[in-house]
Amino acid sequence: MERREFVTASVAGGMAAALTMSQQAEALEQKMSAALDKATMDQGLNGQGLNGQDVGLPWMCEVAATAERIRTNGPGEAPPSGRVLMGEDPRLPKMPAAPTLMDFFRLRFAPASHLLQSANLALKNGHPEKIILACLLHDMSNAALIRTDHGYWGAQMVEPYVDEEVSWAIRAHQALRFFPDESVGYEYPKSYIRMFGGEYKPEPYIVAAYEKARAHKWYMTSRLITLNDLYAFDPNVKVSLDTFTDIIGRNFRQPKDGLGFDGSPVAHMWRTVIRPNSFL
Length: 280
Ligand SMILES: [Fe+2]
Ligand SMILES: [Fe+2]
Fold this sequence. Notes:
Structural class: mainly alpha
Number of domains: 1
Helix content: 40-55%
Number of strands: 0
Bound molecules: fe (ii) ion
């Protein structure tokens, strides 16, 4: 069972009380995003990698024990007697030696329908390129790396390569989605009421992050992520990654050695997405 299904089933099955409210919010967002990806792939709209292979959902979403998954010789042999996988996993599409952001989208994040649709909505709404890029990247972490605190993880991953305002906005969207702003027509998500109950209050660290962001000069940049986020789940909308080639080119500082291999403080995070099942 995939972790996404596991969390969703767990929440539906009464384990909700064991999860914090933030974790439940993450689970709901993941459920919506995964449902969109599934619907998209069922329709054959956008599930193809660079060479036409069906890349499916990211593998690191499986809940199976790592050692079981990566053992490379006989079943029943546990490390240290059994060999384990080091480096690239042959079951995943091969990444280029110096992978670009586009490579990650095609070979690891795909189909990434939620990201593409969010960015497309921002594009249609006439927002500046940095907003479109922020929407394109805002849920990158839960598409391929980790769901919990995804705004913080995602912001960190892109920080060396984007305008400071973009990474700030991605980080802040983690908190802002819980707080309405009538001035721009952002309402508290009805799905959250259904999911968490009307009495739900965000955790103190989320409230503190919101209050800090609310007073920040870039507040509206992050708020626009939440505005273009909520209405982005439409299984009938097909958006090509190519739509954003030029925007990425102008706004994402692609390292010449490739993401994961440029010696940056976050290179290990990109390498983890490339080789999620390497034993060490
Ligand atoms: Fe998000
Ligand atoms: Fe989102």
